[in-house]
Write a structure and sequence with these properties.
The chain is an alpha/beta fold and 746 residues long. It has four domains: 4-56, 2-Layer Sandwich (Phosphorylase Kinase, domain 1); 65-136 and 351-452 and 468-570, 3-Layer(aba) Sandwich (Rossmann fold), CATH 3.40.50; 151-335 and 587-602, 3-Layer(aba) Sandwich (Dimethylsulfoxide Reductase, domain 2), CATH 3.40.228.10; 611-740, Barwin-like endoglucanases. 31% of the residues lie in helices and 16% in strands. The protein is globular and about 65 Å long. The protein binds ligand MGD (2 copies), iron/sulfur cluster and molybdenum atom (MO). One ligand MGD is lined by residues 13, 106, 136, 168-172, 174-176, 178, 202-205, 207, 219, 221-222, 224, 297-300, 303, 618-623, 625-627, 732-733.
Length: 746
């Protein structure tokens, strides 16, 4: 933590770019791409350098806030924590652990402190644990847990070696990629085409990525399962299904082929809007390509056929022989493998899908969490087990989840709410106490989750570069909350809890017959990890017992000390085949014919006959934005209004909507007015509005964002409309009506 040049991984999105940061007189100077970073080689997007603006933002919280009537007042940590304990502990004591809910948001996953210490917090709570994952990749996690036995075993498109890349519902040139960690998608896609490969993008919107593709296929929102069923049908019907070497580890292919018999391209084409000949040809191209990868992301996950779509993505990658082959869809081998701090299957690992359900609607839980779509009703519907207290960590569900207005009312009705966040925003304004988190520059960093689905195997550790300035590390906040909820008072002995967790993990490793440290003395290993504490000690353990680790002196290999010597990261090479070694299913095999997925084909079949609504709404991401929370940095929001409603010219003409005019958009859940952007990038009958805006709510402290507030797209989304298998909300393809707004209507 000194003046000079520092190198660290940007934690803002999944791409893990290396940054070069100048610090002078204790303040952040210039931030630019680290040209020597082994993975990103200097690439950054505009958000990386904005870490300076985020850190220096005068609106950012630097001291705990406690509610005094309708206002907040700054206070010291002991006072704030005592208030939290006095608010939450009696609720648990009197009503049981289900009465306090937890919501963890997206930045939670970009912070190894919060990830590694979540199981300790989970231990203090009941079943009402929610996460942004259930507004995102939950369907993919469910399919991965069923097929591969691990929730986070995501088949990653091997974009650096493939010859045919088909992207479905993902726009990496704006989002920088998802569940396929790769800095510089633009450069990698250019390289794909330069080596004679092809890029096909399937999206209802001619996205930035579609604009650089060899072929763009518009698809009706919410119909990916139909398209994928048509592709898979062709593969089976034409005898093209050939899984290759992984076939020896797969069961149920024939049953899947039979189950798909009703989904010939001619049957699915009217629903998805892609001609039957093109669907059939795409199936043949995928089968014939020497190396091909089909990658589906957010567009396929936020719809009511999402789990079915995720399942069919695997079916197609497997049937075309591309699962686990170089240039196909592969699995990373993360260096800190085995960092399952829960110490038991279920959280992070395993197949604990639908083993418990939500109180009000009976939606299925997964991996120790319930769908965020039922958070509001768990608070506002009275009865035994009702939620009365809430902890939010790095989340802004009032803007990011469906039914935001109902959520806001529900939060207001809570007996006690505490938020761990860096801003006083749309969600945290409802808290009784806000505990400020350090910024990315004030903590160490290692991408525990994202290296699990990187397109190369990479390890890169970043030390903190700025002091905590009186803030509390988030792992200490987690342990404090965990202890106080379990009755240890407002200031639990966090160091002893941490010692207990590390000892437990070391003992688990020494007892594991497959571990490199099996049979070793746990005390000796604990001493070898001295003097580290907190997430750094756990990371050192994970690296040393991981696949490239030094095994605590038994071989040459990685340790945290070795990573610290390599500030630009360590490149552990391209992805390598991992089946069957990585399979963690009870049978050690991949069963493709899961009854719940096959049964869900009935819903798709019924849908094939429905008429398409006149207008549906989808979202979009924008390079200079990040969900709801980076709109307070002037360098990112300058320029034109980005929260526009994109409408196709033909629709605009029919509706009498001019570019820049205001349109009223109405759905069953609500109504809003947004400025129109006429563009043929969207399909006819499809309009697009980005999410994460709507910063005009009272009681926040995000002055820059409030001056360009935009509208909250999720006011049009209802939490009632979900994918029944995952509980994910249907946010892409919301049925809407649209009309010119009357003058003065806003
Ligand atoms: N309509 C529609 N809705 C969507 C989506 C969509 O595509 N369309 N996308 C969905 C997806 S993929 C996701 S992941 C969710 C995201 O949903 P959320 O995670 O609930 O929303 P974010 O906007 O990411 O909110 C992040 C919060 O973390 C705070 N924060 C930032 N950095 C830190 C930190 O270091 N520590 C702490 N403690 N707090 C921090 C921010 O101030 C903010 O309050 O939204 C979902 N909602
Ligand atoms: N700049 C920026 N980067 C981000 C984020 C951000 O908010 N801003 N958020 C981060 C997060 S939390 C995530 S999860 C990732 C997500 O990363 P991506 O999965 O790449 O997400 P999007 O860019 O929203 O791309 C989704 C695409 O799906 C399309 N789409 C909508 N409906 C459908 C449909 O029914 N079918 C198909 N086939 N396509 C559809 C949309 O038009 C859009 O182009 O991005 C991360 N990176
Ligand atoms: S793409 Fe941008 S936000 Fe994502 S890691 Fe790189 S610099 Fe950070
Ligand atoms: Mo996300």
């Amino acid at each position: 933590m000194s003046d000079g040049l520092h190198f660290r991984t940007c934690p803002l999105c999944e791409a893990t770019c290396g940054l070069e940061i100048t610090v002078a007189q204790g303040a952040v100077g210039r931030i630019r791409g680290d040209a020597l970073d082994v993975f990103s080689k200097g690439h950054v997007c505009p958000k990386g350098p904005s870490l300076k603006g985020l850190h220096d933002d005068p609106d950012r919280l630097r001291r705990p806030l406690v509610r005094m009537g309708s206002r907040f007042e700054e206070t010291d940590w002991p006072t704030a924590l005592a208030r939290v304990e006095a608010g939450l502990r009696p609720l648990i004591r009197d009503h049981g652990p289900d009465t306090v809910a937890l919501y963890t948001g997206n930045p939670w996953s970009h912070n190894y402190e919060t990830i590694l210490y979540t199981p300790m917090l989970y231990r203090a709570l009941g079943k009402n644990r929610f996460a942004a994952a259930s507004l995102d990749q939950r369907p993919r996690e469910i399919v991965s847990s069923v097929h591969f036995g691990t929730r986070t075993a995501f088949p990653v498109p091997d974009i650096d070696r493939t010859q045919l890349l088909v992207l479905l519902g993902t726009d990496p040139l704006e989002s920088n990629g998802s569940l396929a960690t790769a800095p510089d998608w633009r450069g990698r896609l250019r390289a794909l085409r330069a080596r004679g490969g092809r890029l096909v993008v399937i999206d209802p919107r001619r996205s930035a990525t579609a604009a650089v593709a060899d072929e763009y296929l518009p698809i009706v929102p919410g119909t990916d399962a139909a398209l994928l069923a048509g592709i898979a049908h062709t593969l089976f019907a034409e005898g093209l299904a050939a899984p290759g070497p992984v076939g020896a580890h797969i069961d149920g292919m024939d049953a899947v082929a039979r189950a798909l018999s009703a989904f010939a391209p001619e049957a699915v084409a009217p629903m998805c809007g892609i001609p039957a000949e093109r669907i059939r040809a795409l199936a043949r191209e995928l089968a014939a390509a020497p190396r091909a990868a089909l990658h589906g992301r957010l567009g396929t996950c936020l719809q009511d056929l999402a789990t079915l779509s995720s399942w069919l993505l695997d079916v197609v990658n497997i049937a075309t022989g591309n699962l686990d082959r170089p240039g196909g869809a592969m699995f990373a081998r993360p260096a800190a493998l085995g960092l399952n701090t829960s110490g038991r299957p279920g959280i992070g690992q395993g197949t604990d899908y639908a083993t418990f359900r939500s109180r009000v609607r009976g939606l299925p839980g997964a991996f120790g969490q319930l769908p965020a779509a039922c958070l509001a009703e768990e608070i506002d519907v009275p009865g035994e087990g009702q939620v009365r207290g809430l902890i939010t960590i790095a989340g802004n569900p009032v803007l990011s989840a469906p039914d935001g207005a109902r959520l806001a009312r529900a939060f207001k009705s809570l007996e006690f709410m505490v938020s761990v966040d860096i801003y006083l925003n749309e969600t945290t304004r409802h808290a009784d106490v806000i505990l400020p988190a350090p910024t990315a520059l004030q903590r160490s960093h290692y991408d525990v989750p994202y290296y699990q689905f990187a397109v190369r195997n990479i390890a890169n550790y970043s030390p903190p570069i700025l002091p905590l300035d009186g803030l509390m590390e988030e792992w200490r906040i987690f342990l404090t909350l965990s202890g106080m909820l379990q009755g240890a008072g407002p200031a639990p002995d966090v160091d002893t809890m941490d010692e207990g967790m590390a000892t437990f993990l070391v003992r688990t490793a020494t007892a594991d017959a497959s571990s490199v440290v099996h049979g070793r003395d746990a005390g000796e290993l604990m001493r070898a990890l001295e003097p580290r504490r907190g997430p750094e000690r756990i990371l050192d353990l994970g690296l040393r017992i991981g696949p490239y680790g030094d095994g605590f002196g038994t071989r040459e290999g990685l340790s945290l000390d070795r990573l610290i010597e390599q500030p630009h990261g360590v490149d552990l090479g391209p992805l390598e085949p991992r089946i069957p070694e990585m399979l963690r299913t009870p049978t050690g095999r991949i069963d493709l014919a899961t009854p719940a997925f096959i049964a869900d084909l009935e819903r798709l079949r019924a849908r094939l006959l429905e008429t398409r609504p006149a207008f549906v709404l989808i979202g979009r991401r924008q390079l200079r934005s990040n969900n709801s929370w980076q709109h307070n940095v002037p360098s990112l929001v300058k320029g034109k209004d980005r929260c526009t409603l994109q409408v196709h010219p033909t629709d605009a003409a029919r509706l009498g909507l001019a570019d820049g005019a205001e349109a009223r958009v109405t759905a069953s859940a609500g109504s809003l007015i947004a400025p129109v952007e006429v563009t043929d990038a969207v399909m006819e009958g499809v309009v697009s509005l980005p999410h994460g805006f709507g910063h005009d709510l009272p009681g926040t402290q995000i002055g820059v964002a409030a001056r360009q507030p935009g509208v909250n797209a999720n006011l049009l989304a209802t939490s009632d409309h979900v994918d029944p298998l995952s509980g994910n909300p249907h946010l892409n393809g919301i049925v809407i009506e649209i009309a010119a707004a009357q003058p003065g209507e806003r």
